[in-house]
Amino acid sequence: MLEIDAELWEKAEELDEQLSSVYRKIDKLAAKNHERVLQAFLKAQISDRHLQGTTGYGYSDIGRQGIEEVFTHVFNAEAALVRGQIVSGTHAIALVLFGILRPGDELLSITGEPYDTLQEMIGIRTGALGSLRDFGITYRQVDLTAAGQLDWPAIKQAVTAKTRLVLIQRSRGYAWRSALTVEDIGRICAELKRINSNIVTFVDNCYGELVENMEPTEVGADLAAGSLIKNLGGGLAPTGGYVAGKEEYVAMAANRLTSPGIGAAVGATLDLNRWLLQGIYMAPLAVREALKGAVFTSALFADLGYEVSPASKEDRGDLIQGIKLGSPELMVAFCRGLQQSSPVDSQVIPEPWGMPGYDDYVVMAGGTFTQGSTIELSADGPIRKPYAIYLQGGLSTDYTKLSVLSAAKACAAITKK
Ligand SMILES: *Cc1c(COP(=O)(O)O)cnc(C)c1O
Question: What is the pLDDT of residues 59-88, one digit of tens each?
């Protein structure tokens, strides 16, 4: 049962008072993004017929075309590929990397180690069967500085004639660093093109969408990709991913998804179109709620004496809230507390496990209607130093509050022992 002490509730109310100006700023951001998304619907002339899906080959699926047009406008891009057949964010990113890179090309990451699930795909250490490395595509990485900043001197040295694509991770992922702002990304893209104009600049946009009033594709990124069970699915998309950007590159990703020759012209949508359309329509609201929940969580855990990133009043570039708990026991306790308050699977007890695609054991909490849907509210972290938990999502700030108060209570039970 959910039992939050009166003391914790009082604390929560106090924090809410102190955070009112931060909340107001988030409201303003969301209002602008609602306008942006609505404009995209109007431009694409979405109507009732777009809500129906197709079967079989999925030729002439106007719903699918309408969705891709909406995303194109939201990203102010030339084209977008938005499909239920893209199984996750990792898959969307793989479509871009395998779609564009050719044997002999080099992939360069300038934000340090890419997100855990991308490492086997690239072939950084071992490389799964069929990794980029298997195809003769080399990889280079420039680590962030000790302060978590881009290492410009090292980046300038790492970019060579072989460099075909530069991977830029917008969000912090499982790293204790700040998210990049869209402005940062603009500066990065301009600088990279100055060094070598043939470079494709690609942003892993997971958890960054609609957190600002601009997207990377508006400031010089050639491509951005992400998952629909994160920000842009609005908690309604039951599956899917997207790629948006330059037409030529989106077509290359589509050819990898289906086959050269048929590209983006096929792909049945079954009953998905309505969910994806309503999902992107609701996304600014989902992001607003998630941001406020993250701000609250940051303030609460800072108040309880933990190191947090970002701080509650700091500008945000993604939905992720990092909390340095400092021990595996506290990570597990946090996740159990959060899980206990989930609408689905509240009876489940989280345990660390070796998830596919991750090197370290990972502990996670998330009782979601859509499996693994982190926009609904989840917390996870690899069991490695600094033993930090990363919380993201929360379709209602009220629910996030209840959940993190429950997590705080579970942590307190450990520290009091
Ligand atoms: C979630 C995430 C991914 C991978 O997305 P999945 O949908 O989990 O495959 C990649 N990069 C970042 C930064 C992410 O947050």
Answer: 999 999 999 999 999 999 999 999 999 999
| CA torsion angle 281 287 288 292 (round to 10) | 160
- The whole-angstrom separation of Cα 388 and Cα 380 is 9
Model confidence band, residue 176 (pLDDT cutoffs 50, 70, 90): confident
Per-residue pLDDT, 126: 75
Taking CA atoms only, the protein residue closest to ligand 1 atom 6 is: 89
Separation of CA 9 and ligand 1 centre (Å): 33
Q: What is the DSSP track for 125-178?
A: SS--TT-TGGGT-EEEE-PPPTTS---HHHHHHH--TTEEEEEEE-S-TTSSSP
pLDDT at 275 > cutoff 70: yes
Six-digit token string for 98: 């395998």
Type of residue numbered 158: A
For ligand 1, mutation pick of 204, 321, 358, 378 (most atoms within 8 Å of CB): 204
Q: What is the DSSP letter of 270?
A: T
pTM over 0.70: yes
CA-based nearest residue to 32, from 285, 272, 292, 248: 285
Nearest ligand 1 atom, CA 88: 7
Atom of ligand 1 nearest to the CA of 207: 15
Query: Does residue 200 sit in helix, strand or coil?
Result: strand
DSSP class per residue in 325-374: --SHHHHHHHHHHHHHT-SS-TT-----B--TT-SS-EEEE---SSTT-T
Distance CA 378, CA 375 (A): 7
Residue pair 241/258 in contact (Cβ under 8 Å)? The answer is no
- Ligand 1 centroid–CA 89 distance in Å is 5
Q: What letter represents residue 25's amino acid?
A: K
Structure confidence at residue 127 (pLDDT): 62
Q: Give the residues surrounding ligand 1 with Cβ less than 6 Å away.
A: 88-90, 115, 117, 169, 171, 173, 204, 206-207, 227
Judge contact between 365 and 336, C-beta under 8 A.
yes
Phi, psi of 353 (to 5 degrees): -150, 165
Ligand 1 nearest-atom number relative to CA 226: 5
Read off the pLDDT of residues 241-264 as tens digits, 9 standing for 90 and up.
999 999 999 999 999 999 999 999
Q: Report the separation in Å between the CA atom of 91 and the middle of ligand 1, taken as the mean of its atom positions.
A: 9
pLDDT of residue 148: 87
For the segment 227-243, the average pLDDT, to the nearest whole number, is 98
